[in-house]
Amino acid sequence: METNFTGTRIATARKAKNMSQAQLAQQLFISPQAVGKWERGESIPDIVTVVKLADVLGVDLNYFSERTSSNPAPDPVELPVERAVADTPLKERPKPTRDMSRFKWADADFSGLKDLHEKFSGSLLKNCKFIDSDLAGVLLENNHVEGCDFRGANLNYSRFRGSHIANTRLNDCGLMEAEFTESVLKGCDMSGADLTDVVVRSSSFQKNTLTNAALLRTTFRDTDLSDVLFEGALEDCTFENCGFSRVTFQNATLHNTFFKSQRLKHIRFVDCTADRLTYEFLKNGKANVSGIVVLE
């Protein structure tokens, strides 16, 4: 978030409210000099103060993060882009794209929003809600996502690169064809999620819950799998050159699932069934297959 841009936003919104710098400072319990520094681009407020600013000035948090060359400092009451397209038929209006990158988002509630088309790269997302939101095709690159809630969200075709995602709810999410590359997923609840055609590559996948998740053509490649419980059906899945530590397949049916590794002996199989081909892949990797019944 650039200082000059942020300062211009603050000044525009303050003037729209007919507030002086001193009056704004009083409501924020800070000095007027601090407000002056923001508006001159000498410093920027921290995330906690940004949330307070949005409340005092009556604007959305996005107001402090959006920027385009044609809209350097929009009026917070009536955005110029809205006036520009007011006479354009709805179906012909372009969908807005907001760049919410390189920012700290804490305790924000984006639940239920549709057609977001957002960019979140390089951001810290902490305790944010995206319940039932449409984030299809979103790119999260070099993000830190902690304690967020994506229950029921559409994350199909999304890309997660170099990101750390921890203690986050992804229950019942659509994650079809999503890719996780050089990322960490730890302590996430992915129960009921659709992981069809998902690729997890060169990543760490630890202590995640996969109860009733759809695992169809799901690929784990060059990934550390630790403390994961697989249940239900796995079909046409791939585990290639992965590390397995305290991984359990329980009440699982494995069909045409490819295991390529010589480090399968630490996998635990409990009341599982598998077709002959999958069974041979496992046996060749020195897995203990005593807990598997072969389907003839």
Strand content: 15-25%
Shape: elongated
Quickly count the helices: 6
Strand elements, count: 21
Q: Span between N and C termini?
A: 61 Å
Mean pLDDT: 84
Strand order of the largest sheet: 1-2-4-6-8-10-13-16
- Quaternary state of this entry equals single chain
What's the CATH H-level homologous superfamily of the largest domain? Answer: E3 ubiquitin-protein ligase SopA
Query: What gyration radius follows from the Cα positions, in whole Å?
Result: 24 Å
Provide the CATH architecture of the largest domain.
Answer: 3 Solenoid
What does this structure look like?
The chain is α/β, with parallel strands linked by helices. It has two domains: 3-82, Orthogonal Bundle (434 Repressor (Amino-terminal Domain)); 97-295, E3 ubiquitin-protein ligase SopA (Pectate Lyase C-like), CATH 2.160.20. The chain is 19% helix and 25% strand. Strands 1-2-4-6-8-10-13-16 form an eight-stranded parallel β-sheet, with no helix packed on it. Strands 3-5-7-9-12-15-18 form a seven-stranded parallel β-sheet. Helix 2 (21-28) crosses helix 3. The radius of gyration is 24 Å and the shape is elongated. The termini are far apart.
